[in-house]
């Protein structure tokens, strides 16, 4: 029995993680597949007044109102017109002791990749003026590099709490 415990811990040394990869412009990003609930096409998004410019609005997903973030805007990238490949990745984000569903708009979804732990580099340091806490690491792949996001850090805690309150109040009122 002791050998099986030792063997299983050794097999986790070169662990492989699964990431959903997507693009924003010419850059490739990845999200832990366990954080992804589903991928949906663009749908009607209801704008919410007085929200930050990166908040596209809210959607009614099977009776549940969820906030939708435009990731290009959040990252300070140039806005482009939506295409037939533009989609919403619905993710689960842990907020305090609960889970919040949120949609993120991306240019296109690429694939699910198995990435070896050894192929993930630590986030490079860009100096104190640049916050990189939302980057989990940089994956080296055959096609170049992919920026792996810690989706729970993409938004600040205050932003997430304000969005969850907005979605909660919208869930109180029925959407068409």
Describe the structure.
With 176 residues, the protein is α+β, with helices and mostly antiparallel strands. The longest helix is centred in the C-terminal third of the chain and has 16 residues. The N terminus is likely disordered.
Quick structural gist:
With 176 residues, this protein is of the alpha+beta class. The chain has helices at residues 2-11, 71-74, 151-154, 157-172; strands spanning 16-24, 27-32, 36-41, 55-61, 64-70, 87-95, 98-106, 108-116, 120-121, 135-141, 144-149.
Itemize the secondary structure elements and their pairings.
Blueprint: H1 2-11, E1 16-24, E2 27-32, E3 36-41, E4 55-61, E5 64-70, H2 71-74, E6 87-95, E7 98-106, E8 108-116, E9 120-121, E10 135-141, E11 144-149, H3 151-154, H4 157-172
Parallel strand pairs: 2-11, 5-7
Antiparallel strand pairs: 1-2, 1-8, 3-6, 4-5, 6-7, 9-10, 10-11
